[in-house]
Amino acid sequence: MMNDQSKYAPREQPSDPAAGEIPNFLRFASVEDAEGVARLALLNERARAGGWRQALEATYQDAEFVRYVTQLDRAAFLDLLPIDASSEMLEIGPGLGQFTALMARRARSVHALEVVPGQAEFALTRCQQQGLTNVELAVGGDDCRLPYRDQAFDLVVLNLVFEWCGSRLENEPHEVAQKRLLSEMARVLKPGGALYLTTKNRYAMRLLRGGRDEHQFDLRFGSALPRALSARLLRRRGHRRAMGMLYSHDRLAAMLREAGLTTLRSYWAAPEMRYPTHYIATDAQSVRAARAKPGLVQASGRLANWLTSLVPARWVRHVIPGLAFLALKPAAEGAPSARATPTP
After folding, report:
1. Taking CA atoms, which of 11, 92, 144, 263 is between 20 and 30 Å from 197?
2. At residue 111, what are phi and psi to the nearest 5 degrees?
3. Distances (CA, A) of 78 to 89, 101, 189, 246, 343
C-alpha cells in the first residue's frame, strides 16, 4: 500500500491510522447487516491465510459470483480510457477489487474509495498479493463527497456505482446527492482529466418490457415509470423512497455538462454491461458499422436481442441496458490540448 497522504484534502486528513490501517472517512454508521459483515471478515481472514482467489471460492461457493469478480475480459472498458504510466487514477467503488489491480498495472498510481470497510480490506489484500505497491485504499464516500484535494487525479472511474449514490442519505433526494458526486469528481480532476462513468439506463428495454427494477424494490417497469407514479406505488408498498436512481441517456449527459464536464462520448456495452463483448460508440454511424459486422450479440436473451436489432441506430442509446460515458474536464486556458481526447 502506498503511503500517499498528499491526495487527501487538508480538511479531510484522517486521524493517524495504525500501521497498515485503511484511512476511514465514513460519515454514517454502517448499514451492512451482521451476516454480511461476518462473511467479509471470514473472507479477509482466509485471504490473509491462503490467498485472495482461494478465499473467494471458499467463502462464497458461488461460481457465478466468483466469475463476476475475477473474469479479466470484464475489464475491456480500460482500453477506452486514456491511461498511461504517468496516470494518477481514482476508482470510486472498487468493490472486491475486480478492476483495481488491472488499473494499477497500467497507471502510475491508483487511489480507491470504497464505502464498505470489509470490501476495501479485501481489495487491498488482493492488490498486495499481486505485488502491486502503487495502490492506496480508503473508506468513505457514503455522503457522496470525496476526501481528496482539488485537481488531484488525471482519471476518475465510477463503474456501476452512480445509481446507488445517495442510498444511505435518507433525508436527501437521490438526485441532489448524485449531482454533488458529479461536482466532486469534476473538482478532483486535473484540467484536461477524464471521467469514465457507467450506470444502468432508466429506459433500458428490459424495464420498458415490464422487468423488475432492483432500484425500486423489484417494482415492475420500475425506473421507466414516471417518477411521481413510481413513488406513489412504492409508498403503497410501504417504502418511503427508492433504493437507487436511474437516468436516461440524455438526462445523464446534461448532468455531466452541468457539473462542468465536456467532450462527452457515450458507449454501448453489448450485449450487457456485466459481461460486454463489444464497446460501441452510440452515434448512429458507429452503431450501423457494428451491426454490419458478423457476430454482434446486441442483448442478452433471444427476444431482447431480436427487439434490440429492430431499434433504429439513432435510438439505440436510449434503450441499451447501461450507459457508459467518457467525459473531459476542460483544460486550463492556454494549456495544451487534453491528452485524454476520447476516441471511438
Report:
1. 11
2. -100, 135
3. 12, 12, 18, 23, 13
Rounded CA gap, 22 and 48, in Å? 16
Domain membership of residue 52 (yes or no) is: no
Nearest to 191 by CA among 16, 338, 3, 5: 338
According to DSSP, the residues that pair with 280 across neighbouring strands are 268
| Cβ neighbours around 337 below 10 Å, total | 8
Q: Give the dihedral sign, CA 13/175/165/77.
A: negative
Does residue 149 share a domain with residue 231? no
Same domain, 83 and 151: yes
Could you report the per-residue pLDDT of 201-210, keeping only the tens digit for each?
A: 999 999 999 9
pLDDT digits (tens, 9 = 90+) for 155-180: 999 999 999 998 888 889 999 999 99
Q: Are residues 144 and 206 in the same domain?
A: no
pTM above 0.90, yes or no: yes
How many independent structural domains does the chain possess? 2
Range of the domain at 239: 202-243
Residue 42 pLDDT grade (very low, low, confident, very high; cuts 50, 70, 90): very high
Q: Does residue 176 sit in helix, strand or coil?
A: helix
87 and 178 inside one domain: yes
Tell me whether residue 53 is in a domain. Answer: no
H or E segment and range at residue 267: strand 262-270
